[in-house]
Amino acid sequence: MSLDYFFEPKSVAIVGASREKGKVGYEVTVNMARAGFPGKIYPVNPKAPEIEGLKCYPDLKSIGEVPDLVVIVVPNKFVARVMEECVTVGVKSVVVITAGFKEVGPEGAAMEKELVSIARRGNIRMIGPNCLGIMVPGSKLNASFGCELPKPGVIGYISQSGALLTAIMDLAISNDIGFSALFSIGNKADVNELDVIRALGDDKHTRVVAGYLESIADGDAFVREAEAISQEKPILLMKSGGTSAGSKAASSHTGSLAGGDTVYESAFDRAGVIRCDSIKTQFDFAQAFAYQPLPAGPSVAVITNAGGPGIMAADAIERRGLTFARLSEETEQKLAGVLPSAANIHNPIDVLGDALADRYEAALNIALDDPNVDIILMLLTPQAMTQARETAESIVKVHRARPQKPILACFLGAKQVEAGVKVLKANLIPCYDSPEAAVRTIEAMVDYVRWKNRPKRVVKLFPVNRHRVERIIERHLRRNMREIGEMESKEILEAYGFVTPPGSIATTADQAASIADQLGYPVVMKIWSPDIIHKSDVGGVKVGLNSPTEVRDAFDLMMYRIPQKKPDAQILGVLVQQMCKKGTEVILGMNRDPRFGPLMMFGMGGIFVEVLKDVAFYLAPITGDEARQMLMNTKTYQMLKGVRGREGVDIDAIAEALQRLSQLVTEFPEIQEMDINPFVVGPPGTTPIAVDARISVEPEKK
Length: 702
Description:
Helix content is 39%, strand content 21%. Helix 15 (388-401) links the parallel strand 18 (375-380) and strand 19 (407-411). Helix 11 crosses helix 17 and helix 23 (624-632) crosses helix 25 (651-667). The two termini are 25 Å apart.
């Protein structure tokens, strides 16, 4: 059902309106009136004839018409009764500001569940409970107990925290930032973050979707919907509430490394959502996205009246992976013709400390002509002769005449540049308090453009033996076994096209030696126990065994020492397998998140994976390009490619392995965690080997 009535209601009823100042019911009523709401306002209070000149009604039925929107601010024990009245009257949109529901405990949760049941029965969309309310400046709607209504703008905002939203509004008003709509969703019992983001995505008055979230209800739907919306409008989110508590209980390397926040980073990357680490950063980004065109590329030109800030900007541009624009010879000749001989005609363009507005304007026009320039950053420091206001007016004039390329400004200082900053803000030119903040914003814009222009996602499906995997998983679940041992884990991998080293299980020293003779030396011996996951920790791995004697000795030693270290472990024998040729050890893994699904991992492997923590994550299913990007996101990617005469490894083979693993965990939701560690990969053209593997399973949740 649409959320249209939350954006443009023609009539609003406030149930629980109060005459007592300081009460929420009073503040909501007064805010509605002060905002100049052009529609009808119906305060509902059976004990008051009027509130601030507005006629009161004893109940919703007595109003005589169906309000487009009802705001409920009665005590929590009466909210259900009011919701029932909304159903009877035919109301379709409700905001429950009242607190005291699931946020306070089981009793409140039961009351909240009842509200949802009533809303569903009456086909009502309900925001809240436990929220600040909603504001739509363009409709002069302030159905909240927040501060004054911000000015109309093109930024739509959603917040799970009402208190934070009041601070954001106060900052926005002081910084002259406008909004298309602001939604406080509180406990999101019915209308959740995705509903509002979807509505803002469809809203013709909204160019940028921004918000603060603490949780996401349906991860898979969020990624799918946000990805579609991001293609048309940027989504800028602050996300808090990440925790590592879940990783502490994980048994796999992947699970322990996939901290509570990692999956959100991966989900946002997939969906094109731009994550902001503070309110300031969010405002910085939002103003640029709202009022400037997107850059065609990453090349930045800097115009400054001082060398120091220009160098600061240049350093920030390089650190952020942007391109410092190389000005054409024609551009430099034009600059030389209008600037003093002491000026720098290369990038950064230094117009010198005595530059007046006309010199800035001339340099800006010339830089805009250069096809090598995608973005321009205007820096100004206050010298005795600096014309801050006039320079700002010149920037505005040029941008209006030539709006094709983004122009960002950074006027350093305070009182002496205040007039110029006001001119820029009033005319929607983003102005920043430091070169670094401006460059960080440029980086966000460039990254967003790259995301929008990415190749179409095509997930490759490989021919596999699903039936073989089904049998293994079903057998384990039937026996209530959650950990799949190494041998059967490798069977699963082989069914999906992985190559594993040959080997067999031995239960005696002589049997182990016989297997080794058949395989050929050297061999590796590993303890075989469903209760021992990390075998190296208990001395359960012996490598480079070169003779039957060494194999027997290793077997006897394991059978003697490991029961002492793990007395409760069921030891079934040892795995004797052929030792792989030398290569680079990497790890491939997956941890299934309950909200977002399978989270893929790649990193440098072996026993030090959790020490080095040089890993990258991505949500499955992944494409070939995304698999290669995972490799590139690690610090050791250059080593994989080959450095200082060392031959690189087969990057495409690793990327294919990640895609095969992605297909496996997507097709079998029972798989909760898995590691292939080490996955030994050699030079291009060689066959990578899945040396060790472990898988944990759970019944699929319906």
